[in-house]
C-alpha cells in the first residue's frame, strides 16, 4: 500500500504552447515526477484537462454551429488522443495508468459515487495511476462541473487525499494584476480569506479551458477547509510537484 495520496490537476494552459498545440515534454515532465512520487510510495490521482484542445488538433475548425455539440465532439475525439500520450509516457516509466471520466452527478450520494470510490481504490491498490477528466461527451448543463478544478477538489475530498496540487501557467495567486511588475505571489492563504479583489477577468478562447484563477482559489480554499492542504503552482516550472511534496516554498499554499 501507499503512504500518501496526492491529487494533481493539470490545466489546458500548462500543456499547450501559444499555438494551442499539446507540448509532449510538459506531459513527460509531469509523468516523470509522478513516477518519482511512486518510488517514494506516494500515489497520485491525476486530473487532466486538454481533451477539447486535443480534439481541435485533430479536427481543426469544425462545421458544427452549436457550441455545446462542438465541445462534445472535440472532447470525444481528443480524450483518446490525450490518453494515448499518457499511456505511452507512463509506459516509458514502467508504470500503468487508467481513465476515469466522471460527471458531477456521480458525486451525489448513491451507487455511482460508491462505484467510483471502489474503482479508484482498486486502481490505487494495484499501483495504477487514475487519470480523470470530466466526461465532456455526455456532461452538459446540469451534470457539468464548473471546471476541472472542481472535479479535482471533489476527488481529493472523496478519496481523503493528503494534498491537492492545482497546476496552472502562472506562479500562483498574485496580489494584483500578474502582468504588473509590482505584483507578487501570495505564498500563504487561509480557507476563509476573501481575495476576490485580486482576480483579473480572463478572456479565454474555445477549448482553452474554463476555469480561471478565481475558481482555482475558491476550490483550493474548499479543500483546505476540509483539512486538505492545497497548492496553486506553475506546472511549467521544473520539478514543481516534487518541490511541493518536499515542503519547499513554491506557489500559493492554501491551508488552515
Ligand atoms: N491575481 C491573479 N493571480 C494570478 N493569476 C491570475 C490572477 N488573476 C487572473 N489570473 C489569470 O488566471 C490564469 C490562470 O487560470 P486559468 O487560465 O484558468 O488556468 P488553467 O487553464 O490552468 O486552469 C492566469 O494565467 C492569469 O492570467
Ligand atoms: N474537460 C475539459 C477542460 C475543462 C477545464 O476545466 O479546463 P482548464 O480550465 O484548462 O482546467 C477538457 O478536457 O478540455
UniProtKB/TrEMBL annotation:
Any idea which GO molecular function terms this record carries?
glutamate 5-kinase activity
Q: What is its main location?
A: cytoplasm
The entry's keywords: Amino-acid biosynthesis, ATP-binding, Cytoplasm, Kinase, Nucleotide-binding, Proline biosynthesis, Transferase
Domain of life here?
Bacteria
**Which Pfam families does the record match to this protein?**
AA_kinase
- Which positions in this protein are listed as binding substrate? 49, 136, 148
**What are the coiled-coil residue ranges?**
none
Catalytic class of the enzyme: transferase
Q: Does the keyword Ribonucleoprotein apply?
A: no
Can you tell me which residues bind ATP? 9, 168-169
List the biased-composition ranges (Basic and acidic residues): 196-209
Q: What is its EC number?
A: 2.7.2.11
> What is its subcellular localisation?
Cytoplasm
Q: Which reactions does this protein catalyse?
A: L-glutamate + ATP = L-glutamyl 5-phosphate + ADP
Q: Where is this region: Disordered?
A: 196-215
Q: Where is the Aspartate/glutamate/uridylate kinase domain?
A: 5-234
| Pathway involvement of the protein, from the record | Amino-acid biosynthesis; L-proline biosynthesis; L-glutamate 5-semialdehyde from L-glutamate: step 1/2
Q: Which HAMAP family does this one have? A: ProB (MF_00456)
Q: What does this protein do?
A: Catalyzes the transfer of a phosphate group to glutamate to form L-glutamate 5-phosphate.
Protein family: Belongs to the glutamate 5-kinase family.
- The protein here is known as Glutamate 5-kinase
Amino acid at each position: 500500500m501507499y503512504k500518501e495520496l496526492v491529487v494533481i490537476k493539470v490545466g489546458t494552459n500548462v500543456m499547450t504552447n501559444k499555438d494551442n498545440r499539446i507540448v509532449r515534454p510538459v506531459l513527460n515532465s509531469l509523468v516523470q515526477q509522478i513516477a518519482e512520487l511512486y518510488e517514494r510510495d506516494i500515489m497520485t490521482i491525476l486530473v487532466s484537462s486538454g481533451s477539447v484542445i486535443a480534439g481541435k488538433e485533430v479536427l481543426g475548425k469544425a462545421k458544427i454551429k452549436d457550441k455545446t455539440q462542438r465541445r462534445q465532439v472535440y472532447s470525444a475525439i481528443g480524450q483518446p488522443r490525450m490518453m494515448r500520450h499518457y499511456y505511452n509516457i507512463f509506459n516509458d516509466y514502467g508504470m500503468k495508468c487508467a481513465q476515469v471520466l466522471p460527471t458531477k452527478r456521480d458525486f451525489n450520494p448513491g451507487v455511482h459515487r460508491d462505484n467510483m470510490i471502489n474503482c479508484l481504490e482498486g486502481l490505487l491498490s494495484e499501483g495504477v495511476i487514475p487519470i480523470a477528466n470530466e466526461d465532456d461527451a455526455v456532461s452538459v448543463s446540469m451534470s457539468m462541473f464548473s471546471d476541472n478544478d472542481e472535479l479535482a477538489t471533489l476527488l481529493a475530498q472523496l478519496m481523503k487525499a493528503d494534498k491537492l496540487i492545482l497546476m496552472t501557467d502562472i506562479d500562483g495567486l498574485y496580489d494584483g494584476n500578474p502582468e504588473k511588475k509590482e505584483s507578487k505571489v501570495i505564498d500563504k492563504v487561509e480557507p476563509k480569506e476573501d481575495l476576490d479583489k485580486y482576480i483579473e477577468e480572463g478572456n479565454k478562447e474555445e477549448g482553452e479551458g474554463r476555469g480561471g484563477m478565481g475558481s482555482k482559489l475558491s476550490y483550493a480554499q474548499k479543500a483546505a477547509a476540509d483539512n486538505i492542504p492545497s497548492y496553486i503552482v506553475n506546472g511549467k516550472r521544473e520539478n514543481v510537484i516534487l518541490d511541493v511534496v518536499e515542503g519547499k516554498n513554491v506557489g500559493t499554499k492554501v491551508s488552515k
